[in-house]
Known about the structure:
Helix content: 25-40%
CATH topology: Rossmann fold
Shape: globular
Radius of gyration: 18 Å
Amino acid sequence: MQTLPVLRSSRPRIGIPLRLSSSTDPDPRVAEANELFDYIVELVRDGGGDPVLLAAPEDPLEELDGVVLPGGGDLDPRRYGETPGQACYDVSHAQDELDLGVARRSIDAGLPVFGVCRGHQLLNVLYGGTLIQDMDPGTVAHRETEPAHGAGPWAWHEVEVQGGSKVAELYSGGTSGAGEHGAGVSVKIASGHHQAVARVADGLVVTAVAGDGTVEALEDPERWVASVQWHPEALELPAEERLAPFRAFVEVCRTRR
């Protein structure tokens, strides 16, 4: 009897590293980050992808079509050659190992990678850059000061994303080369972070900055690797605005597999 081939799902399979910290942690930011993780999983699914939750750095990637690196607690500053300061929270060796391992192997395998908040910072560190451990107040609010913790409610501001960049592609319906004639893409962003990119890693280029110079988007010009400091999954955004970048990323993964 002839064995029929196993047909692969038409929905791109998008790997997402799990959040390992418990929502019962007394720091409310942990529960907030876990809730945002759930939103990302939902948006990948609603955007036409098949979310695959990754629990270990060595989980197989062969059947994946792309990876989303979500938000969460702070990276251990020792990962970029610094001593941890008191402002760092939810630092987890296991979470760092999972996220960095998945990111490194995905990039080596040529998978599209999209980083969000912690994922944005993690990519910069993975490529050899550094972070600001705790941002000083400036001309642009990047988090709410009351209460002094948490990813929400948000600070809101606009960023102009460089035309022709991968992030502009995500915010332009997945159209490759969007805004390549210099038009750029204006995005109203939900911001809730106390850390940011300090020294940009070699191999990455900046494609969006805030009015105070904070690096808001990065990409690898040689691979489909891109990241944003803000939270496109924020529930307070209109439903279509939340879905659009994830749907576009799923399409990137579909066309490149």
